Amino acid sequence: METPPSSFLPLDALLNNPVFAGGIGLGGLGLAAAFARRSAIQGASLVKRRLLVDLEISKQDDSYQSILAWLSLPRPPADFITSKITRIHHLSMRTISQSSQHGPTHKQYFLQPGYGRHIIRHKNAYISVNREKQTSANLNTGEPHETITLTTLYAHRHIFEDIFAEAHHLAASAQEGKTVMYTSRGMEWTRFGDPRLKRPLSSVILDQGIKERILEDVTDFLGRKEWYVDRGIPYRRGYLLYGPPGTGKSSFIQALAGELDFSVALINLSERGMTDDKLSYLLTKLPPRSILLLEDADAAFRNRRQVDEDGYSGGTVTFSGLLNALDGVAAGEERIAFLTTNHIDRLDEALIRPGRVDMTVRIGEATRHQAGEMWNRFYGDIDEDGKGRERFLERLEALDLVTDATGTKRPKLYTSTAAIQGLFLFNKDNMEGAIDMAEGLIPRTYEPEARDPGVKVPA
Ligand SMILES: Nc1ncnc2c1ncn2[C@@H]1O[C@H](COP(=O)(O)OP(=O)(O)O)[C@@H](O)[C@H]1O
Ligand SMILES: [Mg+2]
């Protein structure tokens, strides 16, 4: 409290001086006004401190997007006054391209609260929402930091729990039946596109028993956490899938993640700018409940130290970098990793160690069994007696693309499941067309050396 220091002034003398008295009067008014203003501000901030609660959510937080989505929900019609004050006046648009397994890509548009202040009403509480871009930026991605601050009366603070529960539920139901993909952006994992429809495991056709063997192993691992912890072993398991391109390696991992309700965290080891440091850092920060997928594992073994045609020489992962990243003490204690490669011959045996790679599986050229299963998926409903299927398989046999029915004679040529899928897609609902065009499955260039010498063709 400030008072004029009057005690030591010859007050009477001064007050009797008309000029000075006028001055002091004005000064006094000013002082009183300043005092009033200050108390008002102090009072307001006291009220604010005492009566309001803030909750700040930063964009880095997992809940940010779900809160934003929750805020965009249409609200039930309110009474007149509420509807006047709780309108969201600035909107921003978010467009999502969604490619679904069973349909064309379509775009979805979402309106979100834009930047600035909005008032909303939830249940009985009024909540002020402030969405702001900060002046600082995320050093990894270059994006400005962003926050949403929710403010409500202290008495209504429990509404926040309610909002979070609803937002969480909303996000969970939006992801139901979907698989989330993460990729690295800068030094961070970010969601790649929107969650995709789960790919059913049954839609990936591998040779007999392969899917089951891997699924069983992963499931067993997931149930054994304690076993690992008790023995002080990092709770990690690695799988290496190898074989020619277009045999369903990536599709299988995607479907497996869906089956287990995991996300996929994808790194392409041949991607530009992926360095040892970045890789090992990313592996320490895997998104929760995700399968790590390292595509093109052989990239780490190629000698790519020389300059590319366009003069680019940096940003490669080395073999020791890959091993360090996989073994790293900090590298997420819990981990399921899948590595894929088209060139098993380029990999080093050092990769096959418990925790790095525990199981190696070859996903190979299409077999008779796979061709038959794929036929069933495409033409099962129109080829009721299975005669078309038999003719198709005989044709593949005659073309020397698959084994004979007894599984004894090894084919001279090979084809891939991706090629068979292409053939069937071209001949939708037209099985005769598919049989007629089967010759197109013969690879244009036949490179015997490209084929793994150890290929096992099961019956
Ligand atoms: N075994 C398979 N079963 C079902 N679809 C397959 C199979 N192999 C390949 N495809 C299809 O071919 C395309 C390429 O497959 P992909 O999984 O990317 O092969 P890879 O990773 O082995 O190169 C995808 O559209 C996929 O659906
Ligand atoms: Mg692949």
TrEMBL record:
Domain BCS1 N-terminal: 27-204
InterPro entries to which the protein is assigned, alphabetical: AAA+_ATPase (IPR003593), AAA_lid_BCS1 (IPR057495), ATPase_AAA_core (IPR003959), BCS1_N (IPR014851), Mitochondrial_chaperone_BCS1 (IPR050747), P-loop_NTPase (IPR027417)
GO biological process terms on file: mitochondrial respiratory chain complex III assembly
Subcellular location: Mitochondrion inner membrane
Recorded superkingdom: Eukaryota
TM ranges: 20-40
A UniProt-annotated Pfam family: AAA_lid_BCS1
Domain AAA+ ATPase: 235-367
Catalytic activity: ATP + H2O = ADP + phosphate + H(+)
Membrane topology: Single-pass membrane protein
Gene Ontology terms: cellular component: mitochondrial inner membrane
GO molecular function: ATP binding; ATP hydrolysis activity
Keyword Signal: no
KW Mitochondrion (keyword) present: yes
Keyword set, alphabetical order: ATP-binding, Hydrolase, Membrane, Mitochondrion, Mitochondrion inner membrane, Nucleotide-binding, Transmembrane, Transmembrane helix
Classification via CDD domains: RecA-like_BCS1
Family of the protein in this entry: Belongs to the AAA ATPase family. BCS1 subfamily.
PANTHER family: BCS1 AAA-TYPE ATPASE (PTHR23070)
Name by which UniProt lists this protein: AAA+ ATPase domain-containing protein
Lineage: Eukaryota, Fungi, Dikarya, Ascomycota, Pezizomycotina
